[in-house]
Amino acid sequence: MGCASMAKFAAIRGFKDIRPAQAPLWRRLETAARDVARRYDFEELRAPMAERTEVFARGLGEATDIVEKEMYTFTDKGGERLTLRPEATAGMMRAVLEHNLAEGGRPARLFCFGPMFRYERPQKGRLRQFHQLDVEIYGDPGPGADAELLAWLAAFFRELGLGELSISLNSLGCPACRPGFRARLVEFLTTRALCPDCDRRLTLNPLRVMDCKNEACQEQVREAPRTLDHLCPDCYGHFETLKTLLTALGLDFKVEPLLVRGLDYYTRTAFEVLSGALGAQNAVAGGGRYDGLARELGGGDLPAVGFAVGLERLVMLLSDQAAEPGPDCYLAVLHPAALVPAFKLAEDLRGQGLRVAADWEPGSLKSRLKRADKLGAARVFMLGEDEMARGQATVRDLASHEQTSFDLSPYLT
Ligand code: HAM
User: Fold this and answer.
1) How sure is the predictor about 1, in pLDDT bands with cuts at 50, 70 and 90?
2) What is the DSSP letter of 99?
3) With respect to CATH, is domain 12-177+231-318 assigned 3.30.930.10?
4) Pocket of ligand 1, candidates 111, 130, 211, 278: which has the most ligand atoms within 8 Å of its Cβ, to mutate?
5) Angle between helices 53-60 and 89-98 (to 10 degrees)
6) Is 139:108 a contact under the CB 8 Å cutoff?
7) Rounded mean pLDDT, 207-225
8) Residues 6+ away with beta carbon under 8 Å from 355
9) What percent of the chain is modeled with pLDDT above 70?
10) What is the fold, at CATH topology level, of the domain defined by 329-411?
11) What are the backbone angles phi and psi of residue 254, rounded to the nearest 5°?
């Protein structure tokens, strides 16, 4: 009976194992991200996977779908209300404020990898535990930081061989111009037929109506006032310079006046990176500026901007690329007398930095060659009765089928 048919438990719905066959792709993502982070001068922050519920409720906004419906919240044994992070930005800001990481006259530039948790309806590209790479700059209010982050993202995609980004860009204004816009939006939407959720949002947080998936609400929103037409001079200037910088960098973008994003902390810049290859869940990354979040969490004035990439979605985009190479060597033990020399040889080759696979149970040459082929090994060391008698292993290169001899004498004593 195979192990699978004995399995009693399955993983939780929306939580996925990253199996060994997929692990090399994940490693590749992480290695590429770390390399880009080094070149752009970013440091790693490893933030905890849970925070006090308040951090997200205040940080993300009480009227967002995430806070209203999707958080994994529980009370711990000490009576504290805790939440598994649904995103990294609020917790990272909490850490930056707690440890004064953005002090010392230089903006803090941080990245963070890890699992996030949202109680959403699972589907292709949408999980309940998923992984993000977050990249954030703290303490730099200018549009240069926003542009540099988009350049970071483009460099990351290039590094992975993914080519051009498709960037949707908007500006959501700031506390100076948002109230005026908000009043115009409410005035417009009050006379329209909206879904019951949006009727409620209209008083709590009218910008959320722009993000509603309901067809009828989207219809109304298409004609609604737009943030871009109500920016104050500072926000307008910020957005214009950002666009100039992106154009100078050769980054293609599309201004998308209806883009609002699902989190309340955004001010000014908001963006999303989409891929047509992903189907319905087509956003591979999203981010923007959140100059008010530090204050919301009880800190001082700390402008910040950042983005997060959804790593499962990136893996989906990469999975049709060539598979990782297999081991450098496969040792085929074909006779019991070869076991000890094969062990010594394997240790020696590994000591030289080679990746070595082996089967220690003696088996037939045919079955061992089949195995080496399946593993994608570059060469097979054959260690049978004849080879032991001669003191020479036969080495076959699996691509060219060329055979050579390899001296076993150091391993025979
Ligand atoms: P977000 O748009 O909610 O933004 O998530 C960013 C990315 O995470 C999405 O574009 C998507 O690729 C991925 N993602 C989100 N939810 C799921 C899910 N349920 N399953 C799989 N992938 C998912 C944020 O989280 C912000 N904290 C981004 C940010 C950083 N803004 C400023 N700094």
Assistant:
1) very low
2) T
3) yes
4) 130
5) 110
6) yes
7) 88
8) 327, 328, 329
9) 98
10) Rossmann fold (3.40.50)
11) -125, 125
